[in-house]
Here is the input.
Amino acid sequence: MPTSLAQSPGARVGVSIAVATGLYGVSFGALSVASGLDVWQTQLLSLLLFSGGSQFAFIGVIAGGGTPVAAASAAALLGIRNAVYGMQMNVLLHPTGWRRLAAAHVTIDESLATSTGQTDPVEQRRGFWVAGVGIFVLWNLFTLVGALAGDALGDPKQWGLDGAAVAAFLALLWPRLRSREAGAIAAACALATVLAVPFVPPGVPILVAAVVAALIGWFGYRSGPDGEGLEPDVDPYPADPHRGAAS
Amino acid sequence: MNLWLLLIVACVVGFLTKLVGYLVPKKWLTNPRVARIAGTLTIGLLASLTIANAVATGQQVVVDSRLGALVAAAVALWLKAPFLVVVLVGAASAAGLRLLGFP
Here is the structure.
């Protein structure tokens, strides 16, 4: 007999991760308008793209003077991991009909991590939906708050928003640097980016780095554990080291 | 117009990528090489976006207050600060360095 929803461990973790993640939608909103997108475009990304890494990638390329094609490419490549997450969630949930579309839309690092950290199938289901839908609602709400605030700030540089963008990308990368190999991949791709900057248009160095990362993944795949860097970037269960988020 | 179009393209591609996981046979994406490339791509793109936003200005590599923000953010992350705090540290250090006269 499953516990009631109010006492459900999956739902509880889902709520706390939704609040924590939803709040930082404010930084996406502010940085997005600072990059030159308007409030509508910013909100559309949170409503329809709805994947933090891809959204930050899109505005990061635009902020650097890259073309919309380069921005969309970076966002698309960074979203590939969501396909792998979707496959994992499909095994756990088997959604059908409209639920399959809804589940796909809220398949992100946080909902996967919340769900896979539970062992009871009912809790896995609750954790996924509460985290996914909760983040969707709060992320969009705080995106709007951030976009309106960013619009009112004026000169983004004076407020250090370009520095905030750098910090946001590093914070998205940081939890994935759990192994020496992950660090080496990050270093190689950062170096490739810097070397490419003078020779190709803005935005393209990021795609050069993507090629380097894919080549390392393709040719070096025996040297590390499967799915290196594919762990979700959050661990909703930090208090229990034996129940890893990606296990 | 072009920006709007590509923005919508990015949204559609992003959603379809998620949906693919629910539609294709399990063995396609459990292929270790596919899973590994999805992982290395994620790391590589985020590392590239970090450094590009820190030092690239158009087609030039420039050292300015953004690099200070990168270092400050790294320290904050090392001290296990939450995401939003790290972002604020990045903004404050870039704004602060500019107040001190750095470019």
Helices of chain B lie at 2-23, 26-30, 32-55, 65-78, 83-99. Chain B touches chain A through 79 residues (CB under 8 Å). Chain B has five helices and two strands.
